[in-house]
Design a protein that fits this description.
about 350 residues; about 45% helix; two-stranded antiparallel sheet; 7 strands; 3 domains; Nucleotidyltransferase, domain 5; five-stranded mixed beta sheet
């Protein structure tokens, strides 16, 4: 920019001097002498002439004082070279590349954050659905821009639309799901027993319906009938029974639940995480009970599991229910003065499990 300004100033000054001094004979004679001297020197050169930036600047500035048809006679370079030098010195005035960034303007960070948030909170929304929601909020943005933002964030811009994930299904339908699974127990004498456990997803209520060494399909179907009788009118709120593909269930087992208008859903082969809630409660029974006690026989196992079932449903807190047991609907009144209450302990299963309560 500074060079361009100096170039324009020099041209203006020379134009003024040319007007003032154009008629002086002495200057014309001096010019003829210099041109003749220049011709002599050029005849003595053997290689190409190299012009410094200052020489180019000077010749380009002087070209404005000479008629263009005489440039070949006056200047040591061609007219095309003079014009190229002139454009080079005047071009910075109109060059805005230093002030302009390449490509279209970047998307504001707030919009990018909002796009990612909408995608994460609505897994079935594609980039066009998100673009429409942004337009409704007053943000004008192209669908291709939304697509690129999601792609850069590692989010599929065109997600599945066939249905919810298994996790979404279980969460949305938790109130209507009861799950079943077998729990095996090895006795002190090496005999293997089987217990059938049911878990209501919504309340986390546990039902251990029976224990046997021979879990036939007929026995399993009877456990389904026992559960239906135990649930009573609560079966009206259930819609699905979730179980694995174990052959011990059988058709009769499913028919019992079909009679109560429950749909039986079987998990995929070798996919225990599909029935994760039931798998977890069986793991809890092992960690809190079976790993610390020797089971002698079938009757002993039935008694121990029944006692633990009562503890699990009536006293054991559950994170999924805000630390409430399944059979408790609300927390007790807050204690503001602990010194006025004494806490009593109740030993369960010979002290293996402890329950605590305030003294009456």
């Amino acid at each position: 920019m500074i060079v361009s300004l100096l170039y324009k100033v020099a041209r203006k000054l020379l134009s003024v001097l040319s007007v003032v001094l154009r008629s002086e004979t002495a200057k014309d004679a001096e010019l003829l002498v210099l041109r003749h001297e220049n011709a002599i020197l050029r005849r003595q050169l053997t290689g190409p002439i190299r012009y410094e930036p200052a020489d180019r600047f000077w010749f380009a500035a002087l070209s404005g004082l000479v008629d263009r048809h005489r440039w070949r006679e006056v200047f040591p370079v061609t007219p095309g070279t003079l014009l190229a030098w002139h454009r080079r010195f005047i071009a910075p005035k109109w060059d805005y590349t230093a002030h302009r960034r390449i490509g279209r303007p970047p998307t504001r960070a707030a919009i990018t954050t909002l796009v990612v948030r909408l995608a994460r909170e609505n897994s079935r929304w594609g980039h066009r659905r998100i673009q429409g929601e942004l337009a409704r909020l007053g943000h004008r943005i192209a669908p291709s821009t939304v697509w690129q933002i999601l792609h850069d964030a590692g989010i599929d811009p065109a997600p599945r639309r066939s249905g919810p994930t298994w996790r979404e299904f279980l969460t949305a339908q938790a109130e209507g799901i009861i799950a079943a699974d077998f729990l095996h127990i090895d006795t002190a004498l090496g005999k293997r027993l089987y217990a059938l456990a049911f878990l209501e997803h919504h309340t986390r209520r546990l039902h251990i319906t029976g224990v046997t060494a021979h879990p036939t399909q007929a026995w399993t179907a009877q456990q389904a009938r026992n559960l239906a009788a135990d649930l009573g009118h609560r079966t009206e709120s259930l819609r699905f029974l979730l179980r694995d593909r174990d052959g011990k269930y059988g058709h009769t087992f499913d028919t019992v639940f079909h009679a109560d208008h429950l749909r039986v859903i079987t998990s995929a082969p070798r996919a225990p995480r599909v029935n994760a809630h039931c798998e977890r409660v069986i793991g809890t029974i092992r960690r809190e009970l079976l790993d610390h006690i020797l089971i002698m026989n079938e009757g002993h196992a039935r008694q121990v599991l029944k006692t633990y079932e009562e503890h699990y449903n009536q006293h054991r807190p559950h994170q999924a229910r805000n630390q409430l047991p399944p059979d408790v609907l609300q927390h007790p009144t807050a204690v503001h003065d602990p010194d006025t209450y004494s806490v009593l302990r109740t030993r369960i299963l010979g002290g293996l499990i402890n329950e605590y309560r305030h003294a009456a």
